[in-house]
Amino acid sequence: MLEVKDLHVSVDGKKILKGLNLTINAGEVHAIMGPNGAGKSTLSNVIAGRDGYEITSGSITYKNDDLLEMSPEERAWAGVFLAFQYPVEIPGVNNTYLLKAGVNAKRKHQGLEELDAFDFMQTVKEKAKLVELDPSFLSRSVNEGFSGGEKKRNEIFQMAVLEPSLALLDETDSGLDIDALRIVAGGVNKLRSPDKAIVMITHYQRLLDYIEPDFVHVLADGVIQKTGDKSLAVELEKHGYDWVKENK
Amino acid sequence: MSVLTQTRQDALNLFEKLGLPTQRDEDWKYTDASRLKDLLEPTPVDENIHIKDMGITGLDAYRMVFINGLFAEAESNLPEGVSILSLAELEKNSVGDDAEGIAKLFTVDTQAPLINGFNAYNAAKASDGAVIILADHAILTKPLYILHISNQSNVIRHSFMIGQHAQAEIIEHFISTGDNKALSNSCSFVALKAEAHLEHSRIQQEGDKQSHVARVQVKQCKKSSYTFHGVELGAALSRTDLVVNLHGEGASCDLNGLFVLGGRQHADHHTRIDHKAPHCTSRELYRTVLDGRSHGVFNGKVLVHEGAIKTDSNMSNGNILLSKNAEIDTKPELEIYNDDVKCAHGATIGQLDDKQLFYLRSRGISAEAAQELLTFAFADEVLVAMRNQTVRSYVEKAAFAKLPHSDDLEEMLGS
Fold first, then answer.
1. Of the residues B24, B189, B355, B403, which has the fewest C-beta atoms closer than 10 A?
2. What's the pLDDT tens digit per position in A78-94?
3. Considering chain B, what is the average pLDDT of its residues?
4. pLDDT higher than threshold 80 for residue A26
5. Which of B246, B336, B323 is nearest to B292 (CA)?
């Protein structure tokens, strides 16, 4: 589904990613862990298409297309979704309108009929339950006045409505208390399916107790240093990142 | 000479003394009023304007229509038992003691802030206006919708007197027909007694050859509250002076302004809030969205007088320029003469927020629709404070029509 090859990325002239390789297949759940400044968020932002990142070499192929040639909205239409680390507040833009426009833009692109208002609201209400999001949030402005935990929950709710093929969760667990983490993780687990892939970026092994990954990657100094299964996360927690570098 | 005639004559003399403001006046630095000189004289003719279906349709309200500055009684619908009168009628029928009271409606307070020649001219030449006297504890059960329709220069003068604990909503709407070059000169005087409440909207939507000069002067007694919504969509040139005197303890005002301009339109609001008593609150939110070669001017001054302790004042002005030829001149001003206050003010001029744009696009909204949506949302935020949903949705539609909007966005908001 996603093939990142020898990716080099700089921000303001500073090299962040230095030849990163990553292959993700449908149905898989990957966790990317690593110290601060390793390039984890850079990777997810580059995949989602954010400006301000200079791709000096390498490629990203998504479902046989050159992802780097696509605009952020084209990527969304093709099924890429980023759950933001810091979801932005957008006063005056209604949460439900945004989702409806997003869903319909995607359907239009796929040559499908637009959803009618009633069907859409049914779906939305169903998905809100999935992450135990209070229905009152649906009619509010996007993230405006939401607590940190509510914003993260709203991201997963959006993911549930937009039904992406490839979901990137950028530190979705940070700032969540244990109950909220359980709810969010429950939501994510329900979205697992053989035709979807999930990439979780996290600092903590804690999240992986709730969402069990197929692969754990350690990203440090701009490259994947080590790849393993869930037990790698446990080792990491025990020994720290330096251990990875020493035991490459 | 009767006291009334004398008052009008005094106003004319004052006008001759003041003349029209020039760009040498600090308060008129960015607005050239000289081109309005030949348009001053009102032509109060009740032309056969076909007014059916004009204005805000579907609004459940009492209605007062003025055509070229003259009250059109046949087009109006007024409540029983509330004093809503025509200024011209009052003037015509005034005798004896009455005359003195009525003369006061034409008096120019030369000490009031931002007084200018247009205001003096208005007092001298006003052809009509609404005089509303709401008794203590009275509640106007429906909004009063004052529709002004013009195709000639007109001079109109309203007075809204709201009694103790009384409540009202008044919507002033200005539209024009034809494409005459003409000037509307409008003054509205608002007096709020203790614990009175008024929600007051002014929606200026005149034609693009028209000009519009207005003064809104408000005096607030103890614990009264005043909410203002000023919307500038029309006219080639418009200028409003909004002057609020927080005179009684615990009074509060909430001033909202929105300009959506394009072409060569010019709109200027000068606002002035005087905190004269303790424990008063003022909130001010002004936003402009400027396209083409349009020019916006915002000058907001808050003056906290000695003794006005526990003043709480917040002013914010945001501006988005959609074209490199559009221009905004903004100046929030704060003068404080005591220590025990909480005041904040700020202005921003800018482009749209990159993070918000990216967020929307990452959810599948096209770049173009995302920009338009954020622009609309920016303007719409000022209208959130409008409690009348019929008026709000009318203004939203009118503002939306003036903003760039692709099919994508129409679909998005239309559903």
1. B24
2. 999 999 999 999 998 88
3. 94
4. yes
5. B323
pLDDT greater than 60 at residue A24: yes
Tracing tokens 């990657």 back to the chain, one arrives at A217
pLDDT in tens, B242-283: 999 999 999 999 999 999 999 999 999 999 999 999 999 999
Structure token pair of residue A62: 């998504």
Q: Do B362 and A98 touch (CB under 8 A)?
A: no
A28-38+71-246 CATH choice from 3.40.50.300, 3.40.50.620, 2.10.109.10, 2.60.40.3080:
3.40.50.300
Length of chain A: 248
Q: Per-residue confidence at A244, pLDDT binned at 50, 70, 90?
A: confident
What local confidence, expressed as pLDDT, does residue B413 receive?
Answer: 65
Residues of B with Cβ-Cβ distance to A82 under 8 angstroms: 362
CB atoms within 10 A of CB B74: 7
By CB atoms closer than 10 A (0-12, 13-18, 19+), residue A228 is middle
C-alpha distances in angstroms, A210 versus A158, A190, A206, B121?
20, 12, 7, 76
Who among B353, B363, B367 is closest to A102 (CB)?
Answer: B363
The DSSP H or E segment spanning B11 is helix B3-18
A76/B355 touch (CB, cutoff 8 Å), yes or no:
no
Residue B159's Cβ-side half-sphere holds a number of Cα atoms within 13 Å equal to 22
The beta strand positions in A65-191, using DSSP E, are 65-66, 80-83, 90-94, 141-142, 166-170
pLDDT at A184: 87
